Amino acid sequence: MDLLFEDSGYFDLTTFGLGIGDESGSMSFAPKGEIILSGCDEVEAIMKKCGLKYKFFKKNGDKILSKEKILECEGTAKTLHKVWKISQNIFEYMSGIATYTDKMTQIARQYNPNLTIATTRKNFPGAKELMLKAVMDGGGVAHRIGLHDSILIFKQHLEFFSDKAGLENGLKNIKNKFLEKKIAVEVDSYEEANYFASLGADILQCEKMSFEELTKCVSLKKSYPHLLLSATGGITLENIDQYAKTGVDFVVTSSPYHAKPTDIKVQMKKADR
Fold this sequence. Notes:
Elements: H1 3-8, H2 13-18, E1 24-31, E2 35-36, H3 40-49, E3 53-56, E4 63-64, E5 71-76, H4 77-108, E6 116-119, H5 128-137, E7 141-142, E8 151-153, H6 155-158, H7 164-177, E9 183-187, H8 190-198, E10 203-207, H9 211-218, E11 228-232, H10 240-244, E12 250-253, E13 264-270
Parallel strand pairs: 6-7, 6-12, 8-9, 9-10, 10-11, 11-12
Antiparallel strand pairs: 1-5, 1-13, 2-4, 3-5
Helix pairs in contact: 3-4, 4-5
């Protein structure tokens, strides 16, 4: 997808109609509040494509205070207007996700210093790369990029086994076939967690459990030291502290994808004669 063309199209009717397209000027970007910055690579690619002279003062993952300058660029009015809104949108949406992820991580690590925030496959279609980059700039990781990069057994998979013997044989086969991969299984009760841990699951993804049951599942690590446990289902900034207190190794969430965009102020000025 050509992000620049999606916004600018074939020409800018306004700058053309006003007759100002060839005037020289500058443009700068700065947040109105404290943010974690994301989107620099994408904005820089746009600047290069349009031949603008530019300078970044900050980089992805930086904590930016209110009114601190992120970027300044120079060019003609028609080019500045061409890159203005798409660049602002990229900064605002991606920095919104990064800032939310950072806040979530900071809260969680007050209770569990090693807890990781991992995000799901529930990204907006077509925006996966931008969303995942923003999560990583905020200190999170991708839980699952797609079907190809990890093994996660859901109840929907188990529907295709007629009995426990078939399931247990299937689990044994997948462990032997993909020796370098960890086998994760989604569970929704302590009984299921204990069962799959006994079959050699490496990761138990605990779906929408109460905090009490989740804590009980974490206790399985005493019997299975290799075991990793994650919590998933409705995890947000408002409740991440409660999940962190259970002792899980990581949480799986899509809430950063729904973060409110940050507010980036753009200033444009005509060049001095």
